[in-house]
């Protein structure tokens, strides 16, 4: 029996979207993963680090899933529900969780960490990252690239400017902060949404795809998309991801 729009919208509009666990979408949406395997590469680097900082950690899901954490591990997060989840997951692993507003200045001294990481940061404060890295330390991050999920954004709110997250801009910003980019990779990845509930949940959780999104505000377009999925099958979009690794030179900071 097919579920109605009202049933799907109510379910997806009321379920918790705290943290960065997307398992609620299993069987309802899918997304290809970047070929480089961020979690595996992150685990390799964490196992070799002495002091690491994970910025905008969300609910701490990525760090908590790693087999080894450095002797000193610190994570920052700004959103209170995610902060509580991160603390519950990471404190038993010996990690510190710090409330931060995701904007400069980072609440740490100069040259404290030999590894700084972030997965899908809202913004990257390159000068601050360079400041808290030790000479020879690295920043390692998987980021959202340009025009990510643009097909869905444009269906809901129309044409928009999806630029501003190009990998080459990130490289320029890193180098301007005195860092040397040692790895930069970019991929576009297929996504499928199999019902309108998956769309609503995704837009509630990933708030920058449709700024100001709500089920009520965008009901007309959501109902139209529901009818389209029912008639034609999954709605297809493409995410955009890039991997960047930048090293602070061994000499004095630039």
Automatic annotation (TrEMBL):
Record bears the keyword Signal: no
Gene3D superfamilies: Vaccinia Virus protein VP39
GO terms of biological process kind: methylation
Keyword Membrane annotated: no
Organism annotation: Nonomuraea solani
GO molecular function terms listed in the Swiss-Prot or TrEMBL record: S-adenosylmethionine-dependent methyltransferase activity
Any Pfam family the entry gives: Methyltransf_11
Protein name: Methyltransferase domain-containing protein
Higher taxonomy: Bacteria, Bacillati, Actinomycetota, Actinomycetes, Streptosporangiales
Methyltransferase type domain segment(s): 53-140
Keywords tagged on the record: Methyltransferase, Transferase
Top-level taxon in the UniProt lineage: Bacteria
